[in-house]
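Long-time lurker, first post. I've been practising inverse folding by hand and with some scripts of my own, and I keep getting stuck on stretches where the structure tokens seem ambiguous. Below is the full token string for one chain I'm working on. Before anyone asks, I'm not after the true native sequence, just a reasonable design that respects the backbone. If someone could post their per-position residues I'd love to compare against what I wrote down in my notebook.
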């Protein structure tokens, strides 16, 4: 399943992508106890809850719950978001199609595209193979980093946003290590690869952290197929349109807002 969050009357609401449309998943299931947000679904992602969701989307009347002109939001706010080099979930989070504000004092933005896993079960001292079974699903993360003219980081008080989305695809529908990820800037492909080319696997990363502290549902872990920045092809300026796409997940699209 490809799960999204959309704006329903100013509130975050759980949806699913079906035939290219957003379907209101709680309405499709029709049970008052079914979770109404993706965060709540992750927290209660037992077999019966997920079975109910899948069964609802397979019914002929599922399209009756399609949402017209749905405005898709960041799919979820992770309980924590860790990656080599450390991400900070206290930073603002942007969703698909959102503009990324240009940070004052930046000469350019560095950009790190990543694949993220969201845990659906607790884990402690787990092996990489055990971790694979603990993952709820996968999404994409764009990490924007402000740089000075000499390449040094620029400290921004409120933080440069992280972009997350466009959906969370459930773990049974995608292999995060082998799926191809592509970066396009202003329509031009600049990078393509998968996590099999990374120094470590996403599952190794999670297993290592689980050996240091217990992990909870909703914790997320991200890894880039392309190394930790420093590539001139990923230097961005105001107005740049950046598209991070992956098989099975879709495209996380953001434009860098004009300076000032």
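-- Answer (accepted) --
I ran through it position by position. Result:
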């Amino acid at each position: 399943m490809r799960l999204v969050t959309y704006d329903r009357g100013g509130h975050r609401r759980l949806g699913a992508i079906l035939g290219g449309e957003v379907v209101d998943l709680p309405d499709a299931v029709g049970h008052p106890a079914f979770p109404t947000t993706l965060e709540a679904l992750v927290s209660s992602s037992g077999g019966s809850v997920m079975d109910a969701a899948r069964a609802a989307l397979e019914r002929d009347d599922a399209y009756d719950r399609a949402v017209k002109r749905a405005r898709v939001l960041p799919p979820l706010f992770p309980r924590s978001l860790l990656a080599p080099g450390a991400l900070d979930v206290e930073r603002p989070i942007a969703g698909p199609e959102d503009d990324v504000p240009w940070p004052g004092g930046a000469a350019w933005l560095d950009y790190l595209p990543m694949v993220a896993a969201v845990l659906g079960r607790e884990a402690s001292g787990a092996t990489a193979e055990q971790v694979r079974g603990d993952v709820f699903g996968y999404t994409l993360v764009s990490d924007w980093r402000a740089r000075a003219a000499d390449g040094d980081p620029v400290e921004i008080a409120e933080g440069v946003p992280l972009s997350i989305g466009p959906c969370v695809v459930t773990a049974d529908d995608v292999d995060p290590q082998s799926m191809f990820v592509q970066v396009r800037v202003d329509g031009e492909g600049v990078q393509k690869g998968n996590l099999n080319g990374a120094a470590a696997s996403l599952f190794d990363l999670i297993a290592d952290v689980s050996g240091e502290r217990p992990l909870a549902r909703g914790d997320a872990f991200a890894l880039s197929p392309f190394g930790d920045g420093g590539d001139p092809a990923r230097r961005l300026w105001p107005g740049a349109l950046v598209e991070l796409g992956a098989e099975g997940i879709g495209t996380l699209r953001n434009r860098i807002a004009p300076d000032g």
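A couple of notes from the structure itself: DSSP finds five helices and 15 strands in the chain. The mean pLDDT is 91. Happy to go over any region you disagree with.
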